[in-house]
Amino acid sequence: MTGLAVIISLVLMLPMVTLAARLVIDSLRRIRRQSRVVTSGARSASKEDGSFMAVLGSGGHTSEMLTILAAVLRDERSSRITRLQLVVADTDKGSISKASRLLEKANVEWYIIPRCREVGQSYLTTLFSTIKSFLSSLYMVWSSQPSLLLVNGPGTCVPVVLAVAVLQALGGSRCICSIIYVESVCRVETLSLTGLILYHLGLCDSLVVQWEPLVRTRRLSDGRVEIKDCCTILEQLATHAGSGMDDAEFVNWLDDNDPLKSLRDDFVFPKHPAGGDKSVVYFLGNSLGLMPRRSKEIVNREMDKWGSMAIEGHFQGELPWMPMDRYLLKAMADIVGAASVEEVALMNSLTVNLHLLLLRFYKPTKERFKLLCEGGCFPSDHYAFMSELELHGYRVEDALIELYPREGEHTLRTDDIIDAINKNKDCLSVVCLSGVQYYSGQYFDIEKITAVTQAVGAISLWDLAHAAGNLDLALHKWGVDGVPYHYLNSGAGGLGGLFLHQRHHSCNDGPERQAYLKGWWGHAESTRFEMTNKWEPEPGAAAMRLSNVPMLSAASMMGSLETFKKTNMTELRTKSIIMTGLLEHKLRALLADWPEEQHPFGIITPTDPGQRGAQLSLHFKAVPEKAPESNLTDFTLRVHRQLEDEGIITDYRNPNLIRVAPAPLYCRFGDVGRFCDELNRCLSKQ
What we know:
The chain is α/β, with parallel strands linked by helices. It is built from 22 helices and 23 strands.
């Protein structure tokens, strides 16, 4: 297999395989509980509980199904399967031999039915071949009586599913059968034709998909697949690689088979402090991303255009400055999960955009005047909240609700956030949290918190400075009112972004108009240069723009977005989960060599991959006995400096915290191993 095939078809398939296998076992358990006596003619018999039927397709469908079957049979509860029945089309020559090799120890009953459609077959003849296959499937299902049917997309499965549905609709007690459909891992944004048929006809009890975009667009039963246990995934990958999870060969294998590895070449890395050709490990993308090579090229090109064209540069060249942001909006909308480009705008900096959103949405009344945020939020946010409250005549102590973790904990519990919102439901005006908390690295449940916020009548704003480009976001689906965000490898002080949900777009003007700060560049482009001073807003978020887009900042961002367009947030997020999981595993293995009471640091970022992005925060809490320092801060700073001396770039934050952020765009799995080795040496130095 190629590297792409290994990562996409194996690494990313593993959580789906795990869920599918669990559904199979759990379904058989329910069926066993609900077993009943059936009657056929004058004869009564007890229906056999654990008969499990699966349909094999050909090629990739067969490989995926066999991977799922292998996971089912490895489960210690697989003894519930009393009969394993496999169905193939009569023209499929390879599936039986493939399955026989993989399932050689299993007792398999084989069923062969006519293929319903060949590749390239006309729709007219397909009708007749499908009827023939359906009739054969009817007899097969009637005679074999499966308790559970597992299918994953080949056309062969459609007549089998229809046969089960028809027999159940006719009241055939011989066919009490649950149906699980597992969509192919290669279907990222749309269901296959088979999936569409089964989904819209409601023919399956459970529908399993791998990818988040499918979950966003369809309400599927048990449809969302998340990686909850990175260690298990890593163990399975190591087995596939033929090595141990802690072996250097395994890390090399991950890098060799990384489909995103070529993206690393799009970036410029800083020089190693010692000079020479030794590479740098850059784990600081959450503070400032590396410079994309294309950014430098595009910025230089626009500088040359400025010199050669002057004012005409607004309208000429590959990137005319006046409509410059239009060339960036599609990629930006995809990154944050907007419904269209009209929900996003590129302008200003993050803090300015946060002020603009607060001025639009923070409309305090005598009853509703409070802002809610996480305690210890980034200073820019805190000062913005302070400013807005003071401008409206409120004291911070009276109107700002700051939520802190429970005593002895480092992260906020979602239930505590929701309880605080409900407790203050009558006085809340705006809730504004960070998507990812900069210090702890905690990823908040944006969808759930937004829903609760809006249910009590408050506005939901989010600062996504550390989330945009880091997490697979779905801001439109989640119903978030407004969001500021920034950077995305576009440079220090880079162009900010703003999201405004489309339900607010009608309030840019007209009878429902919301008051907000306006500027020339928010005026409709079609009449902007008529200088009438009669407000005609641009549609959507663009109405909140104040001035024209700064050309050099936009040029820098374009270089970054060109790299983002080579992949998608689902692929980036998946690599990030695996890479951060590997980092956590190695750090915990490192700590295992120390007595627990002497652990020099703890990982305060949530262990659940669904509650963190590409960051682990190491909170230092003890100075080793033989260390030259007695002060914890001095010790932490020395470790940080020594890592830098070895070319490991991380981030120190008060008090006594080192943030480690392996960005999937340009970091390697080997960087994780090198960081942990160097950290261990730093901790051990006398």
